Every structure is written in structure tokens, then in C-alpha cells.
Amino acid sequence: MVLRKWIYLILILVWGGTALNAKSIFKLRDLLHTKDYKEFSYRIKRIGRPWRSYRPRQLKNLALVLTKRKRFAEAYLVYGKLMMTFHKREYREVRRMLELKKKIRGKLTRPFLNTLLAQSQLLFEIYKQNYHRYKPGQMRKARRKFYRQVNLLQVLDEKNEDRLDELEEALEAFEEEEKRKRQKGHYVIRLGQRMYKGKLHLIRESDDSDNLLISSARVMDFGLAYEVQNYYFSYHFAFHYMYGAAGVQSEQTNISYFQDGVGVGAYAFIPGTMWKFNGGRTAFGLEFPLMFRQGNFTAPTGFKFKNTFRYGIGLSLISRWMFGSHFGLEFSFGRMTSMESSLWHLGMLYGF
């Protein structure tokens, strides 16, 4: 009793009176309610109850629960405490082997090796979980730590060699997948021919009657796009300038009108997205062109055009085939809604 009072007195002096009022801190299950790694690390270091008073199974269960909750760094700490407390001899022998390059004296127990294996799996999960938060130096350090642990286990535990090889392959596959997902930006020059049909309205000035005309334009298309892409998707925003000629004819029997070689021009802002297949050599997607067009149409005497300048937004289906890493072929077709016009495009592209 006297000894216990002295122990509590020392705890009060060391922790400022919190040891007696916060016994819940000393319970393992309370570690699960910590908010973040920093708080967990602080509590696990200052825990009042000696670690040997717990059973190994209790610490393993705590680590498993933390792993299920995706708190991998905390679970790694618990396994570390488990090794240093219940596998002290093996832990010291491994440290001695690494630091002094000497052979291990005696046998390593299976529970100790399984704990090392669990830590290796956790290092992989920690690496995946923090991959996008790491700075370059932190990423190299985490990667090196993982491989050091795996290489150590390959020397100590031949029984789990296949599982360790699978872990290494999983890390390499994960990194390869992340590289494929990484987005890169580049410019694309687009050159081709665009064809569009549209409706024009010729108004008779005497009675304001509306006569429908159909124009068919074929223009040269010059475009510059900025494209952001990864292995699976690409997103682009393009500016296009078009110039060429159009033919116009009437669709109604009450008026006869025909004009050919009419100079027409247009420009368009075209955002779009594409899904990539076959390693990026083939892609299909959607474009949403916002187009402005103008034509030098001549109205006969007594008539006037209602809409020689038109603009509108549309939807196009686009496909792309790449020949190498820079050159490609594009084809798209769609419809401009407010311009009552169809839209076709065939062209080459060069990415840089």
C-alpha cells in the first residue's frame, strides 16, 4: 500500500496531477478514440500501465482493429511495442545483426517473424495512403524503409518468401498505376477540314415572309489546343479558326435561289474530353463546341437575310487514332443546336 501511494505521488509530480484523474488513458481501447496519429503517438509513449501487464493477444487485436480502420501508422506503432515488449531477445538480436553485421544467436520465434511481416504489410499500406501527400524526399524515405524491412525478412524468414515477393510486386504495380494516372499537359496543333450545314432565313421585305435556305460550307480548319492527359483520360480546350466557301440554295418551291462560292468564316472554342484505349493509341470522347460563323451572302433585290451571323453551342462525338507519340488523325461529327446545323470534321494533329 505504501509503495503504491509513492508511485501515485511520483505520477502526480511527473504528469501534473493527471494520472489519478484520467485512468481511461491507460486502457488500450481508449487509444482507438484518439483523433490523429500525433495524439496516438503521444499517448502510447506516456501510457501509465507497463506494457508487460497486457497480453500479446490484446496488442494484436488492437493493431488489427486499427488496421481495419485504416489507421496504419498507429497499427505499426503497436506492433513495434509488441516486439520490444514480448520479443525483446529477438528484437535485440536483429538490431545487433543490422548494426554490427553479426549472425543471430539462437532461433527467431514464429510470432516474432509474423509481427515483422505484419509491419511490412503496414509499411506498404502507409506508403499507398500517403503517396499523394509525400514530398519527394519523404517518398524516397518511405520507399527505402519498406524495402529495407522486406529485404530483412527475406533473409530471416524463407517460409514467407512468396508473400514478400507479392508485396514487392504489389508496390511496383501500385507505382506504375499512379504514374499512369498522373496528369501531364501539352499543346496540340490541329489542321483539317470542317463541313457544316445550316439554315438561313431570307425575308421578303414587302410582306416579311420567311423563306428557308440551306447552306453547305466546307472550310479549312486551323486549331490550337491545350490538353491535360493521363493514361486513361484526356481533357482539352481548343481555339479554332475556319475559312472557306459555301453554297446556298432554297428549300421551298415559292422562291428560287442559288449561290455558290460564298466566302464564309468561323471561329470556335471547343472544350472536350476523351477516354483512351489501347495504351492511348485510340481515343473516343465528346466535344462541346461554341461556334461563331459569318457569311458574305448576297440577298436579291427586295429581300434581306435574317441571320448571316450566327452563334451557338453544340455536341460532337470525336475519335482519335495516334501514329506514334506526336502525330494523329481525328474525326468528329455532331450538331449545333441553336444554329440548326450539322458539323463534321476530319483532320490531322501534332502534339508537343
Total beta strand runs: 10
Order of helices and strands: HHHHHHHHEEEEEEEEEE
How far apart, in Å, are the first and last alpha carbons?
81 Å
Helix content: 25-40%
Rounded average pLDDT: 82
Structural class: alpha+beta
Question: How is the main sheet built?
Answer: 10 strands, antiparallel
Indicate the low-confidence ranges by residue numbers. Answer: 5-26
Q: Which word captures the global form?
A: elongated
- How much of the polypeptide forms β-strand, as a percent range? 35-45%
Count helical runs: 8
Q: In angstroms, what is the radius of gyration?
A: 36 Å
Description:
By secondary structure, the protein is an alpha+beta fold. The protein has helices at residues 2-15, 37-45, 56-68, 72-86, 88-100, 110-129, 136-156, 161-181, and strands spanning 184-204, 210-229, 233-250, 258-277, 282-287, 290-295, 303-305, 309-323, 327-336, 341-351. Strands 1, 2, 3, 4, 5, 6, 7, 8, 9 and 10 form a 10-stranded antiparallel beta sheet that branches. β3 and β4 form a beta hairpin. It is elongated. It has 8 helices and 10 strands. α6 (110-129) runs antiparallel to α7 and α6 (110-129) runs parallel beside α8.
